[in-house]
Amino acid sequence: MPAVPTSECYAHADRLRGRVVLITGAGSGFGRATALKFTELGAKVVLGDVDAAGLAETVKQVSAQSGPSSVVSAKCDVTSWDDQVALFETGAKAFGNIDVVLPNAGVSEIGRFDPRLDGDASKLTKPNMKTIDIDLIGVLYTTRIALWYFINDKRADPGLRSIVFTGSMSTFYGSDGVGYGVAKAGILGIMKGIVASCNDLKVRVATVCPYFSKTNILDPSFVHPYPALGYAQVSDVVNAFVAAITDPSPKTNYAAYLIPDQWGVFRMAATGQFVGAEAARRSKEETAAFIKADKEKAKAKL
């Protein structure tokens, strides 16, 4: 699998100009770096983070680079549905619409799943679910709200629209953090689960999957298990986001962009291509009938 050249990542980057991009977890790391790059490319950004100080610093940097009119923000705890709704409303009120959504907020493993590593193993205790709440439930909230905004977009031709998730190489390599591993594997499940909806709405979808990278998500005491591989570069992660959003080819829709080490971006063939091919054959009438039948089934269960 050859690396995707940086020039290819930016071949269609002009498609970001004038787009409105909403990013959660924008107070540091990938979120801050993508906000800076996207506004450099002419996008407007809507930024959210639970870390108010980090968020303010990102807004300051974006404003200095691209002007204060290029950014709005709101403190946002992604585990709060109301916070996320308010973040989207902030963006829509300021810029009129939401075009691209990056459900990026995440944390590393909080607590340990093995009882021997998590307190007194002689007592049965409930596992800490905070990682799942932030890294998976929060992403589900962001995705649900994004779909609602896309469905209710009244523009005759909305143009480029996209959802790109922040996954992890742990989905493929495995992780000794059970909550983190489950959450990141679940993100690929979300991507595959929204194929029919996003095909109908003409929304591009992809997942960017970095390996260990030197961002705030890593504990300061972290020791790389395979130091010869080095760390995934933040710049490569940003390049992957640009490519995932802007590449117009149907062949790269639903792809996983892998940053496994310090040696660049790799693209794995569309993980939703088979489901996507079937869903693409559905007419709008068939999709509407499917959704109606699904609603009726749900009502029958109540």
UniProtKB/TrEMBL annotation:
InterPro entries: NAD(P)-bd_dom_sf, SDR_fam. One of its GO terms (molecular function) is oxidoreductase activity, acting on the CH-OH group of donors, NAD or NADP as acceptor. Gene3D superfamilies: NAD(P)-binding Rossmann-like Domain (3.40.50.720). GO terms for cellular component: cytoplasm. SUPFAM superfamilies: NAD(P)-binding Rossmann-fold domains. It comes from the Eukaryota. Keywords: Oxidoreductase. Pfam families: adh_short. PANTHER family: 15-HYDROXYPROSTAGLANDIN DEHYDROGENASE [NAD(+)]. Belongs to the short-chain dehydrogenases/reductases (SDR) family. This is NAD(P)-binding protein. It comes from Trichosporon asahii var. asahii (strain CBS 8904) (Yeast).
